Structures are given as C-alpha cells and as structure tokens.
Amino acid sequence: MLSVDEVAAMHSSTASISSNYPLISAFVAFALAQSIKFFTTWFKERRWDLKQLVGSGGMPSSHSATVTALASAIGLQEGFEGSLFAISFVFACTVMYDATGVRLQAGRQAEVLNQIVYELPAEHPLAERRPLHELLGHTPPQVIVGGILGLLTAVGLLRPLATN
C-alpha cells in the first residue's frame, strides 16, 4: 500500500511530465511528422499506409523534427548558452547527420540486396527470406523539412504553452 507522501510524489512527477515543454514539443513534432508522412503517402500513391504512422524514412523526417523540437524547446526554456542546450544541439546534429548518412546508405544497400534475392532461383535457400526494410534513412531535403517542422513546433505552436 502506498503512503500519502508516495502518492503525492507520483502526482507531482506526473504533473511535471505533463508540463515539460521540451518533452511535449518533441512528442508533438514527432506526431506531426508521422501524420504528415501518412497523408503524403496517400497523395503520392493514392493508398493509405498505416505503417507510415510509426515507420522510419520518408518526408518529412520525424527523427529530425523530434530532435530539433527538443533542442529548440530546451534553448527557449533554459537558454541557448547553457550546457543542456549544447548537449541537445549536438545530439540533434548527430541524429540528422546519421539519418542522411549511415541509415540512408543502409536503406540503399537493402534495396540492392532485396533485388539480388528476388532474382535467385526458387530452390535457393535464401529465396524464401523476407525482404529487408529499405526505407531507413532520409534524403537531405527530408531532414531539412523535418528540422523546420521541429523548430516551428517548438517556437510557433507550443511556445505559448510554456509561458502559461
């Protein structure tokens, strides 16, 4: 059985999470980016793809939106001169660099490997393998649009919430 003090502490931590401007900014930016991907897929391919709500790759980059919103919100809340902003900024840059580098190249390699496996004779042991996931990384425009979305989320949409 929880004591009154333990219940009060749990309520206090729940209230602080729900008012955590950087955390909310990051989650909202992620949700917006994933939702936009869902609808852009429909406009491009004329089909609904629920995987776009949680999948990686595509326009805009939800990874970039998330880390940019986080770093921007930390900078706005804590100041851009502090260590916390510096850490979040370097983290954001690393994530965005990785999305256009390693992850993009891994996705392109998966495309080639899938094509090779597809062309194998049916009796080959690898012919029955499930295809590798190809949409892993992002092109530079996808990362830039994701970053802009994250910045706009933190500054334009949620900044008024932080002042209340």
UniProtKB/TrEMBL annotation:
Has the keyword Transmembrane helix been applied to this entry?
A: yes
Respond yes or no to whether keyword Transmembrane helix is given for this record: yes
* Taxonomic superkingdom: Eukaryota
Q: So where does this one cross the membrane?
A: 20-43, 143-162
The name this protein carries in UniProt is Phosphatidic acid phosphatase type 2/haloperoxidase domain-containing protein
Against InterPro entries, the record matches this protein to: DUF212
Q: Which UniProt keywords apply?
A: Membrane, Transmembrane, Transmembrane helix
